[in-house]
């Protein structure tokens, strides 16, 4: 178990129809990104009935030459919440490994409420990776410590061009 000084790092529980996903949030390494996520959790933003895993990216459903594997979720409305600064993996040292939680974004500094969970190692999502032309990577902020079986089940659901035919609702608590 990773600890932050003498205290344990915060944990969240993501409840889905496929099971519970427990994640540890790295407030020590990614304070802005982790803080933003926990603020949304504490405010109940993900418990309004609108939070869903809506995207699955697998090798068989992407045309990008740089292949990744993730499930993406959130409120699918980035304009509702303010964007945060981009904490790169170069700054935080958090790599996109199996189970890593990271913020979805378009340009650096546009992340707000959408996040994804990595399936397997995804170095192309780190700083200087090739998934985005800007090479800034994505802001990783936590890691699944239990429930990757549920993540993998969500990833295998039927999709149309990466978007789940039946998005998977979830709630998050601390």
Characterize the structure shown.
The chain has a single domain, classed as Cyclophilin. 14% of the residues lie in helices and 32% in strands. The chain has helices at 31-42, 89-92, 148-155; strands at residues 3-4, 7-8, 11-16, 19-25, 52-57, 70-74, 100-103, 115-118, 140-146, 159-160, 163-169, 171-173. The chain has a 10-stranded antiparallel beta sheet with strand order 10-11-5-6-8-7-9-4-3-12. The longest helix is centred in the N-terminal third of the chain and has 12 residues, at 31-42. Residues 1-6 have low confidence and may be disordered.
Spans with pLDDT under 50 lasting ≥5 residues? 1-6
Question: In CATH, what is the class?
Answer: Mainly Beta
How much helical structure, as a percent, in the residues?
A: 10-25%
Strand content: 25-35%
Distance between the termini: 17 Å
- Shape, per Cα inertia axes: globular
Strand order of the largest sheet: 10-11-5-6-8-7-9-4-3-12
**What is the CA-based Rg, rounded?**
15 Å
**Count of helical stretches:** 3
Kindly identify the CATH topology. Answer: Cyclophilin
Label the CATH architecture. Beta Barrel
Structural class, from helix and strand content? alpha+beta
User: What do the pLDDT scores average to?
Assistant: 94
Give the CATH H-level superfamily.
Cyclophilin-like
């Amino acid at each position: 178990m990773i600890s932050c000084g003498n205290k344990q790092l915060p944990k969240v529980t993501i409840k889905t129809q496929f099971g519970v996903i427990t994640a540890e949030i790295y407030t020590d390494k990614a304070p802005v990104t982790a803080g933003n996520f926990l603020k949304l959790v504490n405010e109940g933003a993900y418990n309004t009935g609108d939070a869903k895993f809506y995207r699955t990216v697998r090798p068989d459903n992407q045309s990008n030459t740089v292949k990744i594997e993730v499930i993406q979720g959130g409120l699918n409305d980035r304009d509702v919440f303010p964007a945060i600064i981009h904490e790169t993996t170069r700054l935080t040292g958090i790599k996109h490994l199996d189970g890593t939680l990271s913020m979805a974004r378009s340009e650096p500094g546009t992340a707000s409420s959408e996040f994804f969970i990595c399936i397997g190692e995804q170095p192309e999502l780190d700083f200087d990776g090739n998934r985005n032309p800007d090479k800034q990577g994505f802001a990783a902020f936590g890691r699944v410590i239990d429930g990757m079986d549920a993540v993998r089940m969500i990833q295998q659901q039927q999709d149309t061009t990466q978007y789940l035919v039946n998005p998977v609702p979830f709630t998050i608590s601390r």
